[in-house]
């Protein structure tokens, strides 16, 4: 997977993504991350890439030309016309299933807006996907792009050392993860649940599944609609649904 980020703040995304698990994946050549500075495609000697909006109103808008130039540089470099994701509160809300879909691509371009946004005409020409990371407004698309790249990267085989762990975590089957414990056996007077010390694998699995159902009912009951539960599990969930 090759990620290409069109941004006015290349150091922000590169510093963020060069660390931790994504950084290790880059070092291990499982993926590449490249930041393309939109300012390098400015069309005037002052390197300006923004201007006032036609029709008036507060704030500046990123101009079409430099954004298009940055995009074209990716097309020329890759010889492909990859999907272009524009990060915007107007987009579809990012989800695990979208991460899974994007993880199948060879190349992905992220377009990060700033100021009051980007001239509509270049968006019409290059953007294939409008994505929001939630119903709140950020100062730019860099953090959302980093969020998406993190979520997509961990689905790429080899990025997490444990190939199975991406599958079993929260959201994979619309259930939250069960509680987990490590040493010491007792901490602040709280003991690790007995069943986890039993070494009885089937019982442990049964307990974990029940805990996932209970936890989802308590914390994210909205997810239960999409979860596939047995009749017994549905009964269990019902007992733990929050009361208004
Ligand atoms: N740009 C500003 N706010 C955003 C959000 N919530 N999601 C994606 N891009 C954004």
Mean pLDDT: 95
Low-pLDDT segments, ≥5 res: none
CATH superfamily of the largest domain: SPOUT methyltransferase, trefoil knot domain
Taking the sheet with the most strands, its summary is: 5 strands, parallel
**Class of the largest domain in CATH?**
Alpha Beta
For the largest beta sheet, what order do the strands appear in spatially? Answer: 2-1-6-5-7
**Total domain count:** 2
SS strand fraction? 15-25%
In oligomeric terms, what are we looking at?
A: single chain
Number of helices: 9
Structural class: alpha/beta
* CATH architectural type of the largest domain: 3-Layer(aba) Sandwich
Order of helices and strands: EHHEEEHEHEHEHHEEHH
CATH third-tier fold name of the largest domain: Alpha/beta knot
Report the principal-axis shape: elongated
Total number of β-strand segments?
9
Instruction: Provide the gyration radius in Å.
Output: 23 Å
Q: What ligands are attached or bound here?
A: adenine
Fraction of helical residues: 25-40%
Structure in words:
With 244 residues, this protein is α/β, with parallel strands linked by helices. It folds into two domains: 2-153, Alpha/beta knot; 168-240, Trp Operon Repressor, Chain A (Orthogonal Bundle), CATH 1.10.1270.20. Helices cover 37% and strands 17% of the residues. It contains nine helices and nine strands. The strands form three sheets. It has a five-stranded parallel sheet with strand order 2-1-6-5-7, with helices on both faces. The chain has a two-stranded antiparallel sheet with strand order 3-4. It has a two-stranded antiparallel sheet with strand order 8-9. Helix 8 packs across helix 9 (231-240). The longest helix is centred in the C-terminal third of the chain and has 19 residues, at 201-219. The radius of gyration is 23 Å and the shape is elongated. The relative contact order is 0.13. The model has no long low-confidence stretch (mean pLDDT 95). The structure holds adenine. Adenine binds at residues 87-89, 132-134, 136-138, 141, 144.
């Amino acid at each position: 997977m090759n990620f290409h980020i069109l941004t006015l703040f290349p150091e922000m995304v590169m510093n963020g993504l060069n660390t931790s698990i994504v950084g290790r994946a880059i070092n291990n050549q499982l993926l590449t991350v490249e930041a393309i500075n939109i300012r390098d495609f400015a069309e005037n000697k002052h390197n300006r890439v923004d201007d006032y909006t036609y029709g008036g109103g507060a704030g500046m808008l990123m101009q079409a030309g430099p954004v298009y130039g940055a995009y074209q540089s990716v097309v020329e470099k890759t010889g492909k016309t990859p999907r272009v994701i524009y990060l915007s509160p107007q987009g579809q809300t990012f989800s695990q299933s979208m991460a899974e879909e994007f993880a199948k691509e060879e190349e992905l371009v992220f377009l990060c807006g700033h100021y009051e946004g980007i001239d509509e005409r270049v968006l019409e020409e290059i953007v294939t996907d409008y994505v929001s990371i939630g119903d709140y407004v950020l100062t730019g698309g860099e953090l959302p792009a980093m969020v998406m790249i993190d979520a997509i990267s961990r689905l790429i085989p080899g990025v997490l050392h444990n190939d199975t762990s991406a599958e079993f975590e929260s959201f994979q089957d619309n259930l939250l993860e069960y509680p987990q414990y490590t040493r010491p056996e007792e901490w602040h007077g709280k003991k690790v649940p007995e069943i986890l010390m039993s070494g009885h694998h089937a019982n442990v699995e049964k307990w974990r599944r029940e805990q996932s159902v209970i936890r989802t009912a308590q914390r994210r009951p909205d997810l239960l609609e999409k979860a596939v539960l047995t009749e017994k599990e549905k009964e269990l969930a019902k007992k733990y649904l929050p009361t208004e």
